[in-house]
Design goal:
Elements: H1 3-11, E1 35-37, H2 47-51, E2 57-62, E3 65-71, H3 80-84, E4 90-92, E5 107-116, E6 123-126, H4 127-137, H5 142-145, H6 149-163
Antiparallel strand pairs: 1-4, 2-3, 3-5, 5-6
Length: 164
């Protein structure tokens, strides 16, 4: 077969490789892609922030919510945050494209509704956590679940001091 005939034949054949942007292949089983947080399950406990070896996760209060940010360009996909989350609120998704011109698209963000302390106004616990606490303790302790740890400590100390 001559070179010309081989070139002519190959010119009209389909490509051997898949055309990537048009045809996306599924990620293999067990692939560690982007990490997402379910803000309906997350309690903003901060465990993920403490166990992340690459400091890719931030948690901070803002207005009436806790903001949880995961910076995917810093993340090393070790899965520590997912395995240590006590509420299973985090998971890997099969998204493997991290190409962007905007840094905001390289970040996942969850807004967890929170409560402010009735005594001092400090944002201290997620609303889901309060409903869990009230379910375990009962309505008798509802006033304690609406106060931050510092104000609760002061209130209990005052009650003990005035009982004597």
């Amino acid at each position: 077969m001559s070179f010309k005939s081989m070139v002519f034949k190959k010119l009209f054949q389909k490509p051997w490789t898949e055309i990537y942007p048009k045809i996306k292949r599924p990620a293999p089983e067990g692939f560690r892609g982007k990490i997402v947080v379910d803000d309906n399950i997350c309690r903003a406990c901060g465990t993920c922030v403490r166990v992340c070896p690459s400091n890719a996760i931030e948690l901070y209060p803002e207005e009436n919510v806790f903001i949880l940010k995961i910076y995917h360009e810093k993340c090393i996909r070790c899965g520590e945050c997912i395995s240590k989350c006590p509420f299973s609120a985090m998971k890997f998704v099969e998204e493997y494209e991290f190409i962007s011109t905007h840094q905001s698209s390289l970040m996942s963000m969850a807004k967890i509704p929170a409560l402010k302390c009735v005594a001092c106004g400090k944002l201290f616990v997620s609303k889901v956590e309060v409903s869990d606490i009230l379910g375990k303790l009962g309505k008798d302790y509802e006033y304690l679940s609406l106060m931050c740890e510092d104000c609760r400590r002061q209130m209990v100390a005052q009650k003990i001091a005035f009982k004597k």
